[in-house]
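Re: the request from the purification team.
They wanted to know what the chain is likely to look like in 3D before they choose a buffer screen. I agreed to run a prediction and write the result into the notebook, where they can find it.
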Amino acid sequence: MIELIGFEALERLTSQQQSMVIDKAVGVALGQEAQIMMRNSMRIVPVDTGTLRRSARVLPAYKEGLLWTVEMGYGGAASEYALDQHENPTYRHAEGKSWKYLEIPVKERIPNFEQRLAKRITEILKRL
């Protein structure tokens, strides 16, 4: 009879390490998708002085329980202006610029989001 001392602990540790690697890949993949959305947004964000455009931010993805969150947006010194520009359809914008400058690019990425995310996660896991 062979008794493997600590095998269950090793198995738990291995499982935890695998979960951490997968979580890292998911976080990176979500961040990559958010960066694409923000780049697309910056193409259509209204520009007057450039303060609004320069205020663009994408924070690292984080997980709470089973929920993943990626925070992105415009603000800082331009917070009130950002909200007003985003929500007011009556403003006239230069050619190629738009209200809903963050919402539009996010909605454009929704189709096939899960497939793109799965592909990104798989590619990241291959490199880890």
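For the purification team: Strands lie at 57-58, 62-64, 67-69, 72-73.
Please add any questions underneath this entry.
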